[in-house]
């Protein structure tokens, strides 16, 4: 999906990946994260966010919850992370990374509640009054007051399967009154998901139907007397979409794929952010006129299309690659034509690394010509001491 853009805009990452594979420093099924480029993207995004008065919470599930990246982003002035689930939140707590938003898209279970609330996240997103009571009790035990983000999901909202939940806007008046009676929580803001998405027809990022629900909820909150609420508008956050967040009365966004230059907008147009990761594999075998490389990193919505095969960029061959059917395990990817066994295979497709079984290599110095592998990690952000 992004390989041509990667060749065009970040050839140094490709050369580095070929070299590290040739030196035996990378096993197949490894994602290489270009730290220099990620931080360049982050700086550009933050400049625009500061200009527009938007807070940014970084989302790193797409690149494996990596703690090195998280710590570097905090050094740049990002306040903290959005943890898509409680396991990610616990990973960040253990690595000293501040939580800006936790509970969206997955609510905090009871067993993790005290530890997460004790870490004093800026916001906890909630889907039910029962969970609000749990948070209130935990905050009381931790002697703190926890701000909540209320997720709004109206009948006309655009929701993804597996991500259903929230409050209808017509429930809010009663809900606000019940929250106001609690001692250790308060309403800190409102959120919807997704708020923005890429439109292929218009080749730009546009508001979704969920913005209608947000506007209804925002009006009710203002009528209730709430002021200075955090209007959280996640999805497709990047430099190009930050002004739109501001136009929609948003206060915060959550860049994920924007940090690696891998939103659909980045495939179809020239944007400030550069592609910042590549997937490394290796030809395993040939059969009936086709080659097969090692898999393990397939994400079913990744739109895998092409592979670059060889030992260096100048002599590499661009060819087609096909992932297995979604009902099969991705032991191998099928490559058009035959290539030598052991040859390096590079791909760049949309991913969610926390859902796969790959390794992650964080590499600095690529853009200055002095690459250094800072660490190898599991897809869940755990440091690996050995390369096998």
Describe, in plain words, how this protein is organized in 3D.
The protein folds into two domains: 3-34 and 271-371, Lyase, Ornithine Decarboxylase, Chain A, domain 1 (Beta Barrel); 37-257, Alanine racemase (TIM Barrel, Alpha-Beta Barrel), CATH 3.20.20.10. The protein is built from eleven helices and 20 strands. It has helices at residues 3-9, 11-22, 35-52, 67-75, 86-94, 110-118, 129-141, 172-180, 210-224, 242-247, 264-268, and strands spanning 30-34, 55-58, 80-83, 99-102, 123-126, 146-151, 185-191, 196-199, 204-207, 230-232, 252-253, 277-287, 290-294, 306-310, 317-322, 332-335, 344-347, 359-364, 372-377, 383-384. The two termini are 29 Å apart. The model has no long low-confidence stretch (mean pLDDT 97).
Please tally the helical runs, counting DSSP H or I stretches of 4 or more residues. 11
CATH architecture of the largest domain: Alpha-Beta Barrel
Structural class: alpha/beta
Described by strand count, sense and barrel closure, the largest sheet is: 8 strands, parallel
The end-to-end span amounts to: 29 Å
Low-confidence stretches: none
Kindly report the CATH topology of the largest domain: TIM Barrel
> Into how many domains do the coordinates divide?
2
Strand order across the biggest sheet? 10-7-6-5-4-3-2-11
Note the overall shape.
Answer: elongated
Percentage of residues assigned to helices: 25-40%
CATH top level class name of the largest domain: Alpha Beta
Would you identify the CATH H-level superfamily of the largest domain? Answer: Alanine racemase
Strand content: 15-25%
* Overall pLDDT: 97
């Amino acid at each position: 999906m992004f390989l041509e853009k990667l060749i065009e805009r970040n050839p140094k990452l490709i050369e580095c990946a070929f070299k590290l594979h040739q030196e035996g420093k990378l096993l197949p099924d490894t994602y290489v994260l270009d730290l220099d480029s990620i931080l360049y993207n982050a700086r550009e995004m933050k400049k625009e966010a500061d200009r527009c008065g938007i807070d940014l919470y970084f989302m790193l599930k797409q690149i494996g919850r990596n703690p090195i990246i998280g710590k570097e982003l905090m050094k740049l002035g990002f306040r903290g992370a959005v943890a898509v689930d409680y396991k990610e939140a616990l990973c960040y707590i253990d690595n000293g990374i501040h939580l800006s938003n936790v509970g969206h898209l997955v609510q905090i279970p009871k067993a993790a509640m005290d530890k997460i609330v004790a870490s004093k996240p800026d916001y906890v997103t909630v889907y039910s009054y029962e969970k609000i009571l749990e948070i209130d009790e935990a905050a009381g035990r931790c002697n703190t007051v926890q701000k909540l983000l209320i997720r709004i999901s109206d009948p006309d909202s655009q929701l993804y399967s597996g991500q259903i939940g929230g409050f209808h806007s017509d429930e809010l008046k009663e809900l606000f009154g019940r929250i106001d009676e609690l001692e250790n929580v308060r309403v800190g803001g409102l959120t919807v998901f997704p708020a923005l998405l890429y439109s292929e027809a218009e080749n730009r990022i546009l508001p979704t139907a969920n913005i209608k629900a947000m506007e209804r909820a925002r009006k009710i909150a203002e009528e209730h007397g709430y002021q200075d609420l955090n209007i959280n508008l996640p999805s497709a956050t990047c430099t190009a979409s930050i002004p739109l967040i501001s136009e929609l009365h948003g206060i915060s966004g959550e860049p994920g794929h924007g940090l690696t230059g891998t939103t659909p907008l980045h495939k179809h147009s020239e944007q400030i952010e550069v592609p910042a990761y590549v997937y490394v594999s290796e030809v395993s075998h040939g059969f009936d006129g086709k080659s097969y490389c090692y898999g393990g990193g397939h994400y079913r919505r990744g739109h895998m299309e092409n592979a670059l095969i060889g030992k260096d960029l100048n002599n590499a061959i661009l060819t087609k690659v096909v992932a297995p059917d979604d009902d099969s395990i991705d032991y191998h990817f099928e490559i058009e034509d035959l290539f030598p066994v052991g040859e390096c295979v590079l791909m760049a497709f949309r991913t969610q690394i926390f859902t796969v079984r790959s390794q992650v290599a964080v590499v600095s110095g690529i853009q200055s010509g002095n690459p250094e592998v800072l660490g190898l990690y599991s897809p869940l952000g755990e440091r690996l001491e050995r390369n096998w």
